[in-house]
Structure formats: C-alpha cells, structure tokens
Design brief:
Elements: E1 2-6, H1 15-29, E2 33-39, E3 51-55, H2 68-94, E4 100-106, H3 109-115, E5 126-131, H4 135-147, E6 154-159, E7 174-177, E8 199-203, H5 213-222, E9 229-235, H6 240-252, E10 259-263, H7 268-276, E11 280-283, H8 296-303, E12 308-310, H9 316-321, E13 325-327, H10 333-345, H11 347-364, H12 367-378
Parallel strand pairs: 1-2, 1-4, 2-3, 4-5, 5-6, 6-7, 8-9, 8-11, 9-10, 11-12, 12-13
C-alpha cells in the first residue's frame, strides 16, 4: 500500500518527530510505501527518505515562543488551516495519490475539523491517532467518535495503555492501539548492559516544570551514594517560561561537578548517542496525564534497554507487568533521596532482573506490532 502520513505539527524535537520515523521505517520494512502529506514549506527536522506531497491551505503553524494571547490567535488560525489541509488531502486521495492516510497525532479538535472537511467522505481509509485520553476529555472524545460513525472510511485510534472504552463498543470506527517502543535507528542495540563508572543517570527530552526536575536535583544533591554517580540533564524547551526555568536550574547547580546540563534540542544520531551513553533513564514526572498518555521517554528507555527510575504515575501498567526499573514516591525530598540511594546502591544486584524485564517489554510493545495493527485497521472495509 502507498500510505500517506498527514503531518502538520511543528516541534523542535520530541516524540512527534520520532513517532513519524517509526511509521516510515516500519511501513517500509513491512513492504509498504510511505509518503508525507504536509503543508507547504513544512520544516522537517530529519530526512525521512521518502516522497513528499504538499497540501494547499497555508503553511504549518508553530506555537514556539508565543505568548498565551498569541497562542489563542494561532490556534484559531490553525483550526481554519486544518480544515483546508484535510480538504487538500481529500483531493489527493481522489486523485489516487495514496491508498490510505494516517494522521499521527491529534487532539479532540481534529474530530470537529473532520466534520467541516471533505475528508469525512474520503475514498480511502483515514486513521486518526490520539495519544492517550485524559478523563476530562473522555466524554468529548467518545461523543466525537460516535458522531463520526456514519463515515465509512474514518477510523479513530486511541494510542496508549488505557484500552477499556465500553461506551464505544458499538463503534466499529474506534480502535485501542498499543504504543510502540522507540529504538536507535543508526546505532546497534542489544539487551546487554555496559554500565559506566560513575553510573550515569539521564534526564532527557522536552523540558516542562511538571517533570519535577527541581525536586529531583535537590534529592540527588542530598543523597549519599555508595557508588560514584553522575547526572546528565538535557532539556529542549518550547516556551520562554520553560527556557528561563531550565537556565535557572543550570545556574543554581553549576557548582555540582557530577551534574552536567545541556539546554538544546537533540535529533537523529546525536539524540541516539546521548541516550545510549547513559545507564539509567530518570522519569520523575508528576503530572496526572502520564497515567493516560503513553510517555515517549518511557518507551524510549525500553527500546534502548535502559532501566528506569520513575514516578508511580508514569504508565503504571508497564512496571506492574515488567520489572524494568523502580517506581519511587515523590512525597518529599527526604523520602525520594533515600529511594534514589537504594536504587543506585543496589543497581548492580538487580541488573539481570531489569534486563529480562526490558526484553519482555520490547517484545510486547515492538514497532512491528504497531504497524501490523494499523495495516489491519486500514484494510478493514466498513462500507
């Protein structure tokens, strides 16, 4: 099949970039031909090595650095353009430019745009993917799915570990989809650990204050380790507020010789090398949404065979099934620092347990299974 990936989200880095790469690489591996449908002048962050078709309707919109008021205005512009992009994709489908379309990352607003676009009557299957459904959005999401039942080629998938949607059992257009691991494409990977001395703990990805970095740094500084440890902190920021906060932390801990900061985007081989060069992934995120949305960094840790130290909110179903690390309480700095000490001081004793857990998790959440499920959805004729 020639499968279009309809991408309109502009990010400096992050899971959208890597998720698209999963789609491209695994579709190719399974014998399909991916092609991007994107707005004109779309700023690709990496070269996906596949065909590109440009959509009418205006350029993509970035929220980077925008004030709250400007974001509101931009969101209104984006909604208008989204409908135009969908109309343009519909025309390409009519012209037989593709056999199916995947829209990789969406919010509930996409369903509203579908109703206002010609794409609802697409001649080819269109799969919209939603990365986790928060409780506050659940009714709105389910109502949106119900409203799209009449359109035979519109499919909607909830990507994540929360797969129980009894209110949608009568909706053949709805699918619960398991999230995939993220793997290094340009570097060899094996389940074997090559532990450094000092032990390297890594905090990576898009930086937001909800990720509890300040709390973790205080706990790390307080902890008494029996094994030498160093901490690598990388953060990509999209708002001035988050950028200022990251720089504040950098200055505050500048005197700590075993803490190294990098305020920058990492992409491609640079990103892969940075993750491969640590021993443990730190995920002390405290936001409730991580119970419902698949954490790209957790699935990166799994794909790179890196044990995790994480908050209890972080996709708890995985640790319940696979011992890929430890969940720690975030009640206080004293409590967390003691748990951090225990994790580091017993790490060597638990290496084999963590390794076997990571092997099991990689098998369950493999990228091949994601694409097989997507192809099954796109091949189902609902008419």
């Amino acid at each position: 099949m020639r499968i279009a990936i309809l991408e309109t989200i502009v990010m400096p880095a992050g899971h959208e970039v890597e998720f698209d790469r999963i789609l491209v690489e695994e579709l190719k591996r399974q014998g399909h031909s991916p092609v991007f449908f994107v707005p004109k002048k779309f700023p690709f962050k990496i070269d996906y090595h596949c065909d590109v078709e440009y959509l009418e309707g205006g350029e993509a919109i970035s929220y980077a650095g925008a004030s709250r008021l400007k974001r509101l205005w931009l969101s209104l512009q984006r909604e208008k353009r989204r409908i135009a992009w969908y109309d343009s994709a519909f025309q390409k489908a009519v012209s037989k430019k593709c056999d199916a379309i995947i829209v990789p990352t969406n919010s509930w607003r996409a369903m509203r745009s579908i109703h206002h676009s010609k794409i609802k009557n697409s001649p080819v299957p269109v799969l919209y993917m939603f990365h986790g459904i928060m409780p506050k959005d659940r009714k709105r999401f389910c109502d949106g799915v119900q409203s799209l039942k009449p359109y035979d080629n519109i499919q909607l998938g909830a990507l994540g570990l929360q797969t129980d949607f009894p209110e949608l059992t009568d909706c053949p257009c709805f699918h619960a989809i398991m999230g995939p691991v993220y793997v290094p494409y340009d570097l060899p990977i094996t389940p074997e650990f090559h532990v450094h001395r000092p032990l390297r703990l890594g905090f990576f990805g898009q930086y937001r204050r909800e990720k509890n970095l300040d709390f973790f740094l205080q706990s790390f500084k307080k902890a008494q380790f029996q094994y030498p440890v160093e901490l690598i902190v990388q953060g990509a920021t999209t708002t001035q507020e988050d950028s200022d906060d990251f720089e504040r932390l950098h200055k505050e801990y500048a005197d700590q010789k075993n803490i190294h900061f990098a305020h920058k985007n990492l992409l491609g081989i640079e990103w892969q090398k940075a993750i491969m060069d640590i021993d443990v992934m730190l995920l002390p995120y405290g936001a409730e949404r991580y119970r419902y949305q698949p954490s790209a960094m957790l699935f990166t840790a799994i794909g790179y065979y890196k044990p995790v130290l994480q908050s209890p909110e972080m996709n708890p179903e995985i640790l319940q099934e696979f011992t890929i690390g430890e969940a720690v309480q975030l009640d206080s700095i004293d409590v967390f620092s003691k748990q951090l000490e225990t994790f580091v001081n017993t790490f060597k004793d638990k290496e084999e347990t963590y390794k076997q857990g990571l092997i099991g998790a990689n098998e369950k959440y493999g990228q091949d299974k994601l694409i097989q499920h997507i192809i099954q959805i796109l091949s189902t004729n609902r008419s």
